[in-house]
């Protein structure tokens, strides 16, 4: 590991030790190392599939077009993904009382699988589905997706995955709990996000504005945060850098 990066990792660990209320803010990049592709970029999902499948109104009107692809991407494949060292590193930092909460833009449940307890899923979750007619929630079960479009066991209405589609609002409770965490934070670990998705990308700026929070960023490339609010930029894979940070605890 380059000496400069090692020095920055030491600085990051020292800042984490000093923090009163450190949280993590994660995006698609942390899960790429678990084999889950990002949505954007040359290897992203939208280079292979049409984003229309996740448009709320298209899904409602043409579920027979959207559901097979949604099942293929998010359930047949993502459900088998496993946490990587970055997820386990954050879980260990939480267990040790260093990280208090995690706000994630991801829907893959990998933070929870790694052992993290206080996770705010800003864009929803794969774990449950909601009926668009009677609004009952159902825990994900492969049986629900044996016949597509998936229908409600109670009223036979259309079932929708409980993550945010295009044209859909952020879940209210996730938004509230995330903002509550942000305004308490004096340090944020920003991991695997380029800061391009609204309104999630506003959260680190809110922490900087509210508490002048220290921003430690771990990304394989510079983001929209790097030259604006980031204090310590650790360039590289989170699965390699977080274990190095843990060596100082």
Automatic annotation (TrEMBL):
It comes from Candidatus Lokiarchaeum ossiferum. It comes from the Archaea. Transmembrane segments: none annotated. Keywords: Acyltransferase, Metal-binding, NAD, Transferase, Zinc. PROSITE patterns: SIRTUIN. Its EC number is 2.3.1.286. Pfam families: SIR2. Residues 2-249 form the Deacetylase sirtuin-type domain. The keyword Transcription regulation does not apply. InterPro entries: DHS-like_NAD/FAD-binding_dom (IPR029035), NAD-dep_sirtuin_deacylases (IPR050134), Sirtuin (IPR003000), Sirtuin_cat_small_dom_sf (IPR026591), Ssirtuin_cat_dom (IPR026590). GO terms for molecular function: NAD-dependent protein lysine deacetylase activity. This is NAD-dependent protein deacylase 2. The active site is at residue 123. Zn(2+) binds at residues 131, 134, 152, 155. The keyword Chloroplast does not apply.
């Amino acid at each position: 590991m380059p000496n400069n990066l090692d020095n920055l990792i030491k600085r990051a660990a020292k800042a984490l030790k000093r923090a009163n209320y450190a949280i993590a803010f994660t995006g698609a990049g942390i899960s790429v190392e678990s084999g889950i592709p990002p949505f954007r970029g040359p290897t992203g999902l939208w280079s292979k599939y049409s984003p229309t499948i996740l448009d709320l109104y298209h899904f409602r009107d043409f579920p027979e077009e959207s559901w097979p692809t949604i099942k293929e991407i998010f359930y047949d494949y993502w459900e088998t993904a496993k946490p990587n060292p970055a997820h386990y590193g954050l879980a260990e930092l939480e267990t040790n009382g260093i990280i208090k909460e995690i706000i994630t833009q991801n829907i893959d449940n990998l933070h929870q699988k790694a052992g993290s307890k206080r996770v705010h899923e800003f864009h929803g979750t794969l774990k449950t589905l909601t009926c668009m007619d009677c609004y009952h929630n159902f825990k994900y079960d492969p049986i629900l997706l044996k016949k597509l479009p998936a229908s409600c066991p109670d009223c036979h209405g259309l079932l929708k995955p409980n993550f945010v589609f295009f044209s859909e609002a952020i879940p209210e409770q996730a938004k509230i709990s995330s903002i509550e965490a942000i305004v308490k934070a004096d340090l944020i670990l920003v991991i695997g996000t380029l800061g391009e998705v609204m309104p999630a990308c506003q959260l680190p700026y809110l922490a900087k504005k509210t508490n002048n929070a220290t921003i430690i960023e771990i990304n394989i490339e510079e983001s929209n945060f790097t030259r604006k609010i980031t204090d310590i930029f650790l360039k590289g894979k989170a699965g390699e850098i977080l274990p190095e940070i843990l060596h100082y605890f």
